[in-house]
Amino acid sequence: MDFSILHYGFMQKAFLAGLLGGVSCAVAGVLVVTLRITAIGTCMAHAALAGALLGMLLGTDGLAMAFVFSLGVAGLIGPLSDRADFAPETVVGIVFSAMLGLAFLFIGLMPGPKSQAMNLFWGSILTVRALDLWVMGVVTIALLAGLGLFFKEVRAVLCHRSVALATGVPATAIYYAMLFATGATVTAALRSIGGLLIFSLIINPAAAAYQLSYDLKRIFILAGVFGVFSCWGGLLASYYFDIPSGAVIVILSTALFVVCTLFSPKKKGLTRRQKFSLSFSQGAQMVAPITPEKPHVR
Fold first, then answer.
1. CB 103, CB 65: distance < 8 Å
2. Is 168 left (phi over 0), alpha (psi -120 to 50) or beta?
C-alpha cells in the first residue's frame, strides 16, 4: 500500500471520517438489526435529509436542522410504536413517507440550481469538513461511552424488552435512547456518506457480524471492524481507480455480508434470536440484582 496518499489533507480527513462513520454506523446497525427495525435507518436518513434541506432553504445551518428533524423523528417513533396498535415497522414506514415527501417539497421550493441539495443524497467523504469530523467524533464517543456504561441494560432490552422491564431495567428509556442514538449517528454521517447510502453502512456490517457470532460484544466489535474496512476500502478504490467512493463503500459492505454468510460457522438448526437468547442468559444474571427478586419466566 502506498502511504503517500496520507500526505494529502483531504485524504487524512476522509480516512478519519471513515473510521468514525464506520464505527458509529455499525454500532447503531447492531441495535436496529437486533430490534428488527432495520427500516429505521432509511427513515432517519430521510428525516436528517429533510432537515438539512429545510436549513438550506431558510439560509440557516443545515446540520443543526438535520439534528432537529432526526431526533424529533426518533422521539416520535418510540411513543407511537408503543401506543399504536401495530408493529414499529408500520410507524417507521409512515414517518418515512412523510419525511420523503418533505424532502422533495423542500427541494422543489429551492430557487436556482439544486446541485448543493443533491450532494446530500450521495454524500462526499472526500470533501468532509472539519466541523463534520468534530460532530462525528462527539457522536461516536457518546455512543461508545453510553454502550459501555449501560451494556447490561442494552443487552437485556435487545434480547427481550418485556422481560427486561420485568427485571427492573428501564426498558422504555433504553429503547428510546437507542432510537435517539441512531438518529444522531445518521445525521452526523449524512454529509460524508449521503442520505441514500448510509442505510447500507448501518445494516450491512451489522448483518455480516451476526453471521459470525452470537456473543453481543463480539458482534459489536466485528461490525465496527467491517464498517471501517468498508469505508477505508472504498476510499482506496476511489483514489486508485477514480470511481465513486460512496458506491464502493456500499458494494464492499454488501460483499462482506455475502462472504460472512457463505462461511458462517453457525449451526443451522436454531434461529439467530434463539441463539442470541443463550448469550442473554448470562446478561440476565448480571441485570437481576437491580430488583429484589428475579421473576420466573418460562
1. no
2. left
> What mean pLDDT do residues 280-287 have?
42
CA dihedral sign of residues 148, 152, 156, 157: negative
The three three-digit cell numbers of residue 204, written as one number = 450491512
What is the C-alpha separation between 88 and 208, in angstroms, rounded? 23
Q: CB count, 10 Å around CB of 191? A: 26
Is-contact 10 126, C-beta < 8 A? yes
- For each of the domains in the chain, give its residue range(s) and CATH number, in order of start: 9-285 (1.10.3470.10)
Residue 223 in this model has a pLDDT that exceeds 50? yes
For the chain, the helix, strand and coil percentages under 3-state DSSP, each to the nearest 5: 80, 0, 20
The Cβ of residue 254 has, within 10 Å, a number of other Cβ atoms equal to 16
Provide the pLDDT for residue 217. Answer: 92
38: its cell numbers: 432495520
Taking only the tens place, the pLDDT of each residue in 153-188 is 999 888 887 888 888 888 888 988 998 898 899 888
Q: What is the pTM of this model?
A: 0.80
Share of the chain above pLDDT 90, in %: 23
